[in-house]
Amino acid sequence: MDEILLVGNPNSGKTTLYNALTRSNEHIGNWHGVTVEEKKKLMKVGESNFLLVDTPGLYSLTPLSFEEEVSFKIIEKGNYKKIINICDRNNLQRNLYLSLCLLEEDLDIVIAINEIDKKVKFKVDEKKLSTLLGCDVFLINAEKKINIAKLKESLLKEKKTYSLPYLKKIDFEKVKNYFKNKSEKEKQIFAIKAYEKNENFFKLKGFSDEEIKIIFSLVPENSLEILTEARYAFLDEIIEKSCQKVDFTYGKSKLDKILLNKYLALPLFLVIIAFIFFLTFFSLGAFLSDLLSSFLNLLSSPILSWLKGVLGGNWIYYLFSDAIFNGLSTVLSFLPQVVLLFFFLSLLEDSGYMSRIAFTFEDILGKVGLSGKSIYTLLMGFGCSTTAIMTARNMDNKNSKIKTALLCPYMSCSAKIPIYTVIGGAFFGVSNIFVIMGLYLLGVVVAILVSLVLDKTILKSDNQTFILEFPPYRLTSFKRLKNILKNNVKTFLVKVGSIMIAMNIIVFLLSSFTFKLQFVLDGSGSILESIGKFLAPVFEPLGFNNWAIVSALLAGLVAKEVVVSSIAMFNGIDFNATKLISSSILLSTSVVYFPSTASVLSFLVFCLLYTPCLASISMMKAEIGTKWTVIGIIIELIVAYILSFIVYNIALSIEVFGFLPTFLVILVIILVVISFALIYRVIKHKKCPHNCQNCHRNCGK
To answer: 458-495: buried (b, 16+ CB within 10 Å) or exposed (e) per residue?
Structure first.
């Protein structure tokens, strides 16, 4: 089956067009790196079938980043019938630069000029532009599917012949003579690539480093500048002839003076996130969760009554009651909060605000060996660590890629929402919003500190290229939001319907049977209790040495939502899960019982930081290899244990001695550590033979 490539600059609406052409629902974002690998799907054009290939965004055919290199290699392989080159109408000159690069290689392209925004910078005469470029040009709206049918029809047409007049003004003869055995068309393409100093191209064609040096010596030193100026001069000419400028300044907003202010940017971001958390975990989210929980109770009660009448009180009934129905009810009751979090994050993404956030965090991340690109991956970690880890592959630097993937699990994913809501809500009530915000911020701070340590030790990163563009602020469409909700509900339900039920059944069987396969209703002497009691002493310094709590953490390795459903099962909770589970962990008679606020805070911190789910571990292994995945897991367990220990002892000290004495002790410890660090620095400075201020950099000592 013939393939059609879809290529274009980042943020030009490429994935939106891919969805329109193939009736898909691939993720759309306002930055490069959202598409980090090629995607393929069947596209029907009349009676013909094609395979449409969505490639990562790129600006030219001289790749500067991982995703550009992926697209470059796909294009250069040449195994396709046609290329659809999508351009953003309001960034036409920059987008058409890529079009010229494609045309210079004599590729068969169709240009689709996408109208992303209501306000337009240019009125485009597509017929005149088509004549000047020598290929079909269409004005489309990918989101509203305007002119998509015409675009499809053009894919069946034969390739047009064209010439690019600006190339005749450049002297390629000297470098062309080097490729005597090539055809005239190949000589021209190879000469252009030599002027671009495009090492990737020549390496892909099998040239050695020595041959590449000889080829580059045949072109002027400023060859790239000569070629670039010729391209832009031609673009200026054709835009002047085919486009009429409208009085509109694109890409700037008065909002940026506030949202990008160096003093206000970070506080405003925290306020926005706090507001989202309040709506998600409390007011709206809590109301919808209670409503859904009541509905599930109403739906399931008669079924369970009927089952009890049929099965009696044997273990099979409790398997259905505790492991399946109650487990499902517990997890499903948090569906509204999960959906709300994805909904608000998508609003931020579609609005163009996420690109501003990347800009805000670029300097901070740069100091710990990351780049602004990492913020995209880390922010996605708030939704799902597995998906976020996959996007780490867009890092240009290998060490930066490994670090970014290792940091994703520290971002508090949506699967941990039930843990924070149920456990934290029991002890902190309305104040739990500050606990939740603190946990999210702690995850970010820990990720930055871990990155800093790795950058200074075993994973040093070089300076990285970070190209960033600000899209205008936009309102997302109702259809887009509907698809977001639909996809996330579907993903959540599939997860609940497979992993959750399976894990709940395993936990139930392990907690209901002894090693002699005797059924025990209260879990005493069960297989799981024996395992939990064996491991419980390890967690005693953290304030929770309860076997059932340890068992719930073990179950959470499969999926973090299972932690809450396991606790519900151990405590024999029926429906209206959130309130009842929260009440049960306060009772000393319950199987899962937290004796103090200190132990709860320690548990929440451990849940935040310890090993991610199996799906995330599997993705880490695929992206960064077994070695770094194992190292990452070890680091996560150590960090989780140490921080939980610190939090437990600080919280316990505050409970026993009060806030002020505890604060003073911590302050003294910090001052002592700083003093020792300064003393060490002075001693090291005196030992320097050249008496320089920065010995390890200036004299290598």
So the answer is: ebebeebebeebbbbbeebeeebeebbeeebeeebeeb
Phi-psi region of 132 (alpha: psi -120 to 50; beta: other; left: phi over 0): alpha
Q: For residues 21 and 555, what is the distance between their CA atoms, to the nearest angstrom?
A: 42
- 289 and 325 housed in the same domain: yes
Give the Cβ contact number of residue 213 at 10 Å. 11
* Same structural domain, 577 and 498: yes
Q: Residue 557: how many CA atoms within 13 Å on its side-chain side?
A: 12
pLDDT of residue 629: 92
Q: In what order do the strands lie in the sheet with 82-88?
A: 39-45, 48-54, 3-8, 82-88, 109-114, 137-140
Same domain for 238 and 351? no
Q: Max CA-CA distance within the chain?
A: 92
Q: Is the pTM of this model over 0.70?
A: no
Q: Which amino acid is at 352?
A: G
Q: What is the CATH number for 66?
A: 3.40.50.300
- Domain coverage including residue 179: 165-245
pLDDT band of 648, cuts 50, 70, 90: very high
pLDDT at residue 104 is higher than 90: yes
Q: What is the pLDDT of residues 122-171, one digit of tens each?
A: 788 999 999 999 999 999 988 888 899 999 999 999 888 888 999 999 99
Task: Please report where in the chains the tokens 């740069």 appear, as a residue.
Answer: 366
Q: How far apart are CA 147 and CA 61, in angstroms?
A: 28
DSSP state of 318: H
Considering the domain architecture, whether residues 572 and 429 belong to the same structural domain is answered as yes
Domain assignment present for 323:
yes
Lowest-confidence pick of 396-400, 415-419, 424-428, 572-576:
572-576
Residue 112: closest CA among 84, 78, 74, 82: 84
Q: Crossing angle for the helix pair 335-351 and 353-366, nearest 10 degrees? A: 90
Cα–Cα distance measured from residue 579 to residue 474, given in angstroms and rounded to the nearest whole number: 39
Residues 292 and 412 in one domain: yes
Q: List, for residues 429-483, the tens digit of each pLDDT value.
A: 888 888 988 998 899 899 889 988 888 888 877 665 555 566 667 777 677 677 7
Query: What are the residues whose beta carbons fall under 8 Å from the beta carbon of 461, sequence distance 6 or more?
Result: 369, 370, 397, 399, 400, 403, 455
Higher-pLDDT residue of 88 and 684 is 88
* Contact by Cβ (8 Å): 642, 634: no
Q: Lowest-pLDDT range, 16-25, 313-322, 459-468, 584-593? A: 459-468
Nearest-angstrom CA–CA distance, 98 and 376: 24
| Rg (alpha carbons) of the chain, rounded to whole number | 30
For residues 548 and 566, state if they share a domain: yes
Instruction: Look at residue 139 in the predicted model and tell me its pLDDT.
Output: 92
Question: What sign does the dihedral 137-139-143-149 (CA atoms) show?
Answer: negative
Considering the domain architecture, whether residues 570 and 674 belong to the same structural domain is answered as: no
What is the pLDDT confidence band of residue 697, given thresholds at 50, 70 and 90? very low
Domain stops at, among 108, 129, 154: 154
Residue 490 lies in a domain: yes
Domain boundary residue among 94, 129, 154? 154
